[in-house]
Design brief:
lactate racemase activity, Nickel-dependent lactate racemase, LarA-like_N, LarA-like, alpha/beta, 2-enoyl-CoA Hydratase, Chain A, domain 1, LarA_C, 424 residues, 2 domains
Length: 424
């Protein structure tokens, strides 16, 4: 019997699968990678050896307004470690710099003060300027051009008014942008809902290159990179983390070159070969990525790539924050089934994209091929069933239900952390 740890909230669940029924366990090599230095030292080394750019301290000289785009509460970016090192580097070149952290909420809800303290620590929250971006407030935005796809680039004024715009973040596989990090700090991070909607349209989401681990020819990535360059994102600091959310590698420098170096490394660690099975058990990597159903769709796509047609996906996600988006939720509550959701979304022209339709489109795609059972004892079960999924309070309960659907002889693949792998 294999007892496999599945991240869930701030702890884990155990999947007890008989060896005779287990096709395989798919894990990123990042979880077993031994870094060459400590976390802070890795960030410092990256800043001292930037890729395709001068050092950040040199870029900061004579700049009066510096803006650091930082990730929000939904991302496990170790900002407590990264931010102090970045601030020291900036102030080494410009002790009197006016520095503002701009929190890249994208289409998410606003980050709370408590979440900022959890992310940065009390000292930075008490002593540094922090502004939380709101994609739905037109008064804080300015239009700076057009995306390659034709949409307007409408962005937070703070980013445009900065003499030096930089960002921090992390790189992991992303289910339609290819990888997170780099250019994604700008789009969707600090742009208007208008720009997010243009970029996340149904034609792009369905594109064959808008998939996990793919950048080349990915129309979503192309738009994102163009927006970041148009906004003059001058320098990035991105890290790669392991299952314990610890930094194992850091990259700094040019928004495109440093990001490509980071995605190359992350891709080598994350790529695994599919082990097709009747039942696939996965997670959204635990806290903070499994706080809502919206984010949990990401983990489902890893399972989708290794689940036989008609098979069952079990996704373990606390979802203590509920559905994660009222518009996302309504797509399913107002439709008869997943096919009705998909038909409605695919009939929408790109210029008429509706909030959160991209996440609904991908969930509908998964549901059209598989039964999805969500394991959660922290989410209202009705939210889950309203979204056309089945629900179980425990993993053993979900396994029993899955075998009832797929048969007692069903075989399993387990992907403990669905957001950390690229399944091919």
């Amino acid at each position: 019997m294999a007892d496999i740890k599945i991240p869930y909230g701030k702890g884990h669940l155990i999947a007890a699968i008989p060896d005779s029924k287990l096709e395989g366990v798919l894990e990123s090599k990042s979880h077993h990678y031994h870094p060459e230095a400590g976390e802070r030292e890795l960030v410092q080394q990256a800043l001292e050896n930037p890729i395709g750019s001068a050092r950040l301290r040199d870029l900061a000289k004579d700049k009066s307004k510096i803006v650091i785009i930082a990730s929000d509460h939904t991302r496990p970016v170790p900002s407590k470690i990264m931010a102090p090192v970045m601030l020291a580097e900036i102030r080494a070149g410009n002790p009197h710099a006016d520095i503002t952290f701009l929190i890249a909420t994208g289409f998410h809800r606003l980050t709370t003060k408590e979440e900022l303290i959890s992310k940065f620590g009390e000292e930075i929250v008490a002593n540094e300027k922090i502004v939380v971006h709101n994609a739905f407030d037109p008064d804080i935005m300015v239009n700076i051009g057009k995306l390659p796809s034709g949409g307007d680039i409408v962005i937070n004024k703070l980013a445009v008014e900065a003499d030096l715009l930089i960002s921090e973040g992390f790189i992991e596989p992303h289910f339609f942008a290819g990888f997170s990090g780099g250019r994604k700090s700008v789009l969707p991070g600090v742009v208007s809902k208008v720009t997010v909607l243009a970029n996340h349209n149904s034609r792009f989401i369905v594109h064959e290159n808008a998939r996990t681990g793919i950048l080349e020819g990915n129309p979503i990535h192309i738009d994102m990179l163009y927006a970041a360059k148009t906004a003059k994102l001058a320098f990035i600091v991105n890290v790669i983390i392991d299952a314990d959310k610890k930094i194992i590698k850091a990259y700094a420098g040019d928004v495109e070159q440093a990001h490509l170096a980071g995605t190359g490394f992350a891709g080598e660690l994350a790529r695994v070969s599919a082990k097709p099975a009747d039942i696939v058990i996965t997670s959204n990597g635990g806290y903070p990525l499994d706080q809502n159903i919206y984010q949990a769709v990401k983990g489902m796509t890893a399972a989708e790539a290794s689940c036989k047609p008609g098979g069952v996906i079990i996704i373990c996600a606390a979802c203590n924050d509920g559905h994660g988006g009222e518009a996302f939720y309504r797509w399913f509550t107002e439709a008869k089934d997943a096919q009705a959701v998909m038909d409605k979304i695919m009939a929408i022209e790109p210029e008429n994209t509706i909030a959160d339709q991209w996440e609904a489109q991908i969930l509908a795609r998964v549901l059209l091929k598989h039964t999805v059972i969500m394991v959660s004892d922290e989410c209202d079960p009705k939210l889950i069933t309203d979204m056309k999924m089945k629900v179980a309070k425990t993993l053993p309960e979900a396994i029993a239900l899955a075998e009832h659907i797929a048969g007692a002889d069903a075989r399993y693949t387990v992907i403990p952390d669905g957001v950390s792998v690229i399944v091919r």
